[in-house]
Write a structure and sequence with these properties.
There is one protein chain. This protein is α/β, with parallel strands linked by helices. It has one domain (7-160): Rossmann fold (3-Layer(aba) Sandwich), CATH 3.40.50. Helices cover 40% and strands 20% of the residues. The chain is built from three helices and nine strands, in the order E-E-E-E-H-E-H-E-H-E-E-E. The chain has helices at residues 27-41, 64-93, 112-132, and strands at 7-8, 11-13, 16-18, 21-22, 46-49, 95-100, 137-142, 150-152, 158-160. The strands form three sheets. It has a five-stranded mixed sheet, covered by helices on one side. It has a two-stranded antiparallel ribbon with strand order 1-4. Strands 8-9 form a two-stranded antiparallel ribbon. Helix 1 packs parallel to helix 2 and helix 2 packs parallel to helix 3. The chain is globular and about 45 Å long. The two termini are 29 Å apart. GO terms for molecular function: trans-2-enoyl-CoA reductase (NADPH) activity. Interacts with PEX5, probably required to target it into peroxisomes. Keywords: Fatty acid biosynthesis, Fatty acid metabolism, Lipid biosynthesis, Lipid metabolism, NADP, Oxidoreductase, Peroxisome, Phosphoprotein. One of its GO terms (biological process) is phytol metabolic process.
C-alpha cells in the first residue's frame, strides 16, 4: 500500500474477522475502532498489526514529510493499535498480538525509513511482551520473507539463504 492509503488492522474475535479501514496513525480513529469492535462482539481475542506504508528512495532523498509518514504509519500506528486493544480488553482478559515487521536485519538499502520503523516495531514488540506478560497478553513479531530467500535442504527443512 502506498502512503495515504487506508490501512487494514484486523481485529479478530472468536470466529469472526472484522477488518476496519482507517488511518492507523490517528489515535481517535484507532480508539473508535476498538470501541466499535467491543460493542459488536463483546471481546477481542487477538490483534494482527499488518498495516504499513513505504516507498523506495535513496536515504538522502527522503523528505521530512516522507520519513514522518512512514514512521507514523508503521511504528506509531502499531503502537496505537496495541495500546488501544490492551487498555480496552486485553489488560483484564489476556490475548495475543502479532506485529508484522520487515526483513531489515542486515540493513534495508533504498528503504531506510521502513527499515528504521520496522526495527523499532521489533523492539516495541519485545518491550510490550515483557511489560504485559503478567496480564496474559502474548506479543510476537513475524517477518515475512519471499520464497526467493528460502531453499530446502536435503532434510526438507527450510533455511534462509545468506545475503552475502
Amino acid at each position: 500500500m502506498g502512503l495515504g492509503s487506508p490501512l487494514v488492522f484486523p481485529i479478530v474475535t472468536t470466529g469472526v474477522l472484522t477488518p476496519p479501514r482507517l488511518a492507523s496513525c490517528l489515535w481517535e480513529q484507532v480508539e473508535s475502532m476498538v470501541k466499535t469492535t467491543l460493542n459488536i462482539y463483546n471481546r477481542i481475542d487477538f490483534l494482527i498489526n499488518n498495516g504499513g506504508g513505504q516507498f523506495p528512495s535513496p536515504s538522502e532523498e527522503i523528505s521530512a514529510k516522507g520519513w514522518n509518514a512512514v514512521v507514523e504509519t508503521n511504528l506509531t500506528g502499531t503502537f496505537y493499535c496495541c495500546k488501544a486493544v490492551y487498555n480496552a480488553w486485553m489488560k483484564e482478559h489476556g490475548g495475543a498480538i502479532v506485529n508484522i515487521i520487515a526483513d531489515m536485519w542486515k540493513g534495508f538499502p533504498g528503504m531506510a525509513h521502513t527499515g528504521a520503523a520496522r526495527a523499532a516495531v521489533d523492539n516495541l514488540t519485545k518491550s510490550l511482551a515483557i511489560e504485559w506478560a503478567h496480564t496474559g497478553v502474548r506479543i510476537n513479531s513475524v517477518c515475512p520473507v519471499s520464497m526467493g530467500d528460502l531453499c530446502v535442504d536435503t532434510t526438507g527443512c527450510y533455511r534462509t539463504l545468506s545475503r552475502g
